[in-house]
């Protein structure tokens, strides 16, 4: 019984925020930094890097359910598995940014990023699965309380990792070497902080993909996750093009991205508190409506409207904080009832989330190119700009609207698992 008392103390939760920051630092920021680093340092072509990144994204989509099964198989040895995964991720990051390639740079790029992203995916699945067990031992609405800490840490990790190389440039001559060293230290600290949290879950409760996919609520939440993550994939893919061609202010892209993620980080705990007071579903629906309002605003902007677009970034970033906090918490609550070990469930969750990135990569850019859009041109045709605006602002509105409809028609308390 003493262990239960220890688990219910909120002092444990900062460790989850720290580990979430570690994972976030290995995600989106690496997609931003790594290609430019290899172009500048080794002269690798952008098209070749793009093909490798597409291949890695495809591998991610395929391997996540398999990594979910692996995490489930290793649940009785999760502490060792997580320590090993953290070490692989840190070593791969160091090799990517701080070592001279011992193979052709493009091959080195692919191999090291495979190590980073595979370990990142495995650790993410283990982390969210463990969160289900942790939340069940917390008082009150444990899933929402844990999600507040976890997603706020993740968003702050994205912000810091995105700007760290710029800051380190002023401190040392090789900022990415410093980034790799700092990342390794963060990996060590986060792994140590979480060491006592990797507990074996109840093995008597059924698990596996079947238990999840047979459950109507879980299926609906996975569909909502896809529909709701797709707008983020769309806007992430087209953000730089929108700022460059529609606003004609490419120099503001970095600060605007930081504003977006900081808004999400600040808003995430506030959405969590609102959900605890009024329920996760109505609060998430309100956040989705707020996101649609922000995307509608992006329809009417043009050259030089940086300040107005900053407002769009603040509002849409705040809405993203709800998406990242509440929807995983709702899925985790359901897994707590139907598949408490949760590893395979979050393997499916990761699969669905990354499928949106593949969707964006294989559809949006070809459509934009067919419209006659040319990246880097000071002036594009009105048809090309209109296509960009409709894809960047219109498509997310439609996808969010469908997600809201599905969520509104979903009962989160159904006992029917057919």
Please outline what is shown here.
This protein is mostly helical and 418 residues long.
Topology:
Blueprint: H1 2-7, H2 13-25, H3 28-42, H4 46-73, H5 78-98, H6 105-136, H7 142-169, H8 175-193, H9 209-213, H10 216-246, H11 253-278, H12 280-298, H13 306-338, H14 343-370, H15 382-408
Describe the 3D structure.
This protein is an all-alpha fold. It is 79% helix and 0% strand. It contains 15 helices and no strands. The chain has helices at 2-7, 13-25, 28-42, 46-73, 78-98, 105-136, 142-169, 175-193, 209-213, 216-246, 253-278, 280-298, 306-338, 343-370, 382-408. It is globular, with a radius of gyration of 21 Å.
Helix content: over 70%
> Gap between N and C termini, in Å?
36 Å
Number of strands: 0
Report the average pLDDT across residues.
82
- Biggest sheet record: none
Shape: globular
Provide the succession of SSEs. HHHHHHHHHHHHHHH
List low-pLDDT spans: 1-6
Q: Cα-atom Rg, whole angstroms?
A: 21 Å
In DSSP terms (H or I, runs of 4 or more residues), the helix count works out at: 15
Structural classification: mainly alpha
Q: What portion of residues belong to β-strands?
A: under 5%
